[in-house]
Design brief:
Elements: E1 2-8, H1 10-15, H2 18-27, E2 31-38, H3 42-48, H4 58-65, E3 70-77, H5 80-88, H6 101-105, E4 114-116, H7 120-130
Antiparallel strand pairs: 1-3, 1-4, 2-3
The structure holds adenosine-5'-diphosphate (ADP) and magnesium ion.
Length: about 140
């Protein structure tokens, strides 16, 4: 059993994609173990994406991520990290496989509807960024 962090980004919330995203996880073997809606400020978005601080799109990305509410979730399941990444599709929706969340709903490489942790270490950091132990259910 593995845990990963998922986010429905501000574009996905604005477009009304929360239900479709959660339903896709539930139909594909990922259980929601924690969930809440938050609105990050610029500093909180910068902290979350600190690993990308040298990238040219960092300013724009953190403006976008603080532009409205997000739904943050802990997903649990076998190979949850890889399975979530598969359901999300490629970062750029132009390259995302048919049926993936980004192919279905994303409008650009930046406004791509969902975030998912990419490794066990980043999953642990990202889950801890938004949730404490008491907010994550155990079974
Ligand atoms: P992923 O979200 O697929 O793990 P990255 O970790 O590489 O992708 O990038 C984090 C986020 O930064 C992306 O989901 C996207 O919102 C944004 N992003 C990535 N590449 C670009 C780019 N070339 N231009 C604008 N935004 C980008
Ligand atoms: Mg990433």
């Amino acid at each position: 059993m593995e845990r990963t962090l998922s986010i429905v980004k501000p574009d996905g919330v604005r477009q009304g994609n929360i239900g479709d995203v959660v339903s896709t996880f539930e139909k594909n073997g990922l259980k929601v173990a924690a969930m809440k809606m938050i609105h990050m400020d610029k500093k909180e978005a910068e902290g979350f994406y600190a690993v990308h601080r040298e990238r040219p799109f960092f300013g724009s990305l953190t403006d976008f991520m603080s532009s409205g509410p997000c739904v943050v979730m802990v997903l649990e399941g076998e190979n949850a990290i890889a399975r979530n990444r598969e359901l999300m599709g490629a970062t750029n929706p132009a390259n995302a496989a048919p049926g993936t969340l980004r192919k279905r709903f994303a409008t650009s490489v930046e406004q791509n509807v969902v975030h998912g942790s990419d490794a066990p270490e980043t999953a642990a950091y990202e889950i801890g960024y938004f949730f404490n132990q008491l907010e994550i259910v155990n079974k």
